[in-house]
């Protein structure tokens, strides 16, 4: 009997305590509701975080504030409602606006970097379609990247048009996805523009401008019998349009090649390798 009574007594004590605790479960204000929900309040001085909130919740904030929102007005709204006891009224909006909880990859990158200007989608000038082509052609050898964007590069050509579009479509979609560290990292890697558009930009970036050929006659003499040079249509075109000497034809070809963009068909796989062999001093590789 004692055991049973003890059990009943324990249940009674537990029950009383349970009712007492239940009565205190109700958060005292909005701030306590958010923190109990496992959410972290935004730091007042975290400007990038407030920019991300503004980017992701513009329409919601317009409805709340009854005006075009900015970071300062958002902060003030949070300061005003966090102490309020009627948390049910503000819980949903506050969980989007006042906490460290980016809803998209785009928002997360804004929170980290202050914007998306480092991505092709964030560029204010330049042709984004062309930028995606260049980014694609320099990453098409990365099988994991191609699998990620669901594109298989063709074996016989570069696949610039379709590959660039596949990359662009993936990047735009990924920016709206729920963020995680891996996806954010992949977006930064795949969706950023290359730091060059053409051959000249690449050799400048690589610090190879000083290697540009100066003795075109010697170089011409060393490659003039190569079938790849004699049968090169781009070389023939220069010959047909001018009365330049042989070395001047090579020089002209090199000068024209420098401006070739990697978004143009054949620049990456054909023109650039030939340029390195014909126009840069000390370049090694297959004779072209």
TrEMBL record:
It comes from Mycoplasma haemofelis (strain Ohio2). This is Uncharacterized protein.
């Amino acid at each position: 009997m004692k055991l049973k009574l003890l059990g009943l007594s324990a249940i009674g004590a537990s029950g009383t305590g349970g009712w007492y605790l239940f009565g205190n479960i109700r958060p005292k204000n909005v701030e306590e509701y958010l923190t109990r929900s496992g959410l972290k309040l935004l730091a007042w001085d975290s400007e990038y975080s407030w920019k991300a909130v503004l980017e992701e919740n513009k329409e919601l904030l317009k409805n709340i504030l009854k005006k075009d929102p900015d970071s300062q007005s958002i902060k003030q709204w949070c300061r005003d409602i966090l102490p309020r006891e009627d948390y049910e009224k503000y819980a949903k909006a506050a969980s989007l606006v006042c906490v460290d909880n980016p809803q998209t990859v785009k928002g997360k990158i804004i929170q980290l970097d202050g914007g998306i200007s480092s991505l092709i989608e964030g560029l204010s000038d330049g042709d984004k379609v062309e930028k995606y082509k260049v980014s694609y052609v320099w990453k098409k050898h990365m099988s994991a990247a191609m699998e990620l964007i669901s594109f298989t590069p063709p074996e016989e050509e570069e696949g610039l048009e379709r590959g660039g579009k596949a990359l662009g479509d993936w990047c735009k979609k990924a920016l709206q996805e729920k963020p995680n560290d891996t996806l954010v990292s992949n977006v930064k890697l795949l969706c950023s523009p290359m730091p060059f558009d053409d051959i000249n930009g690449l050799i400048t970036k690589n610090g190879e401008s000083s290697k540009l050929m100066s003795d075109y006659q010697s170089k011409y003499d060393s490659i003039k019998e190569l079938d790849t040079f004699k049968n090169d249509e781009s070389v023939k075109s220069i010959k047909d349009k001018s009365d330049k000497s042989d070395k001047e034809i090579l020089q002209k070809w090199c000068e024209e090649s420098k401006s070739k963009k990697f978004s143009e068909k054949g620049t990456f796989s054909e023109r650039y390798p030939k340029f390195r062999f014909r126009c840069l001093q000390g370049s090694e590789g297959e004779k072209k």
